[in-house]
Amino acid sequence: DLELHLQRCQQLSVTVLTDHQDLSNTELKTITSSTAPQQYRIRAKLRTYKPQKLHQSVKLHCSKCNSLQEVPDRDDFDFILRGSAGTAPNPELQNTSWYESVTWTTEDQKQREIAIHFVKHDEMLQHPEDTLLMIEGGTLKEIWKLTKRFKCVIPVRSTEDDLELLDLSAPFLLQGNVKYYGCKQCSTPKPMKNLSSIAAEQQPSWEPTEIAQVLGIELLQYVFIMKFTLVDETGSLNAYLFDY
Where are the domains of the chain? Predict the structure, then answer.
């Protein structure tokens, strides 16, 4: 997908350079000394582009505080999951009116306790492809297995009173192979019991934007950013691509 996106970006850059056929070519030094906004047609060479590695072009953007951040890597998520696995699931938070719980202890040396909470609708479990579940104590590998079968997976941990989200450095929601993140600065995470309001809807869709809203999360959007340096005989110009 990213390779296709880069091809599209390259096509877009060509489109921009050859657009406005009714306009004559303008030198770059004229453009850099002009006030925006203006429309120009230029003839220039591409000197450099950044970043050089395609995966580095993808960032997370908060539309509320306008911040940009790197997409956390697999190791960051794994580290947070390992940390939360040290907290045993609270038995008092299992099998409530709006979710059904399954627990077991792993047979490996660490003997982790795992709890999976399947959110119900009309007191019934939904089909796997429509189900949202919450998992405590799971590893990255176990979570990815669940995302292949169930619609939404939310990693959580137990407190004395309720289930809560992990550190927002981790994705608060996984849907298929997409990880959804929240802005640390703008989010005010709420307990998982707030999800019961969506479960009570006539047809819960489990859309990420709705889940984020009820959990007090300001959803970060994936954006594609590149910087191109264009040159002609008169000067240079930086062009930025910012695309959702």
Answer: 73-180+197-215
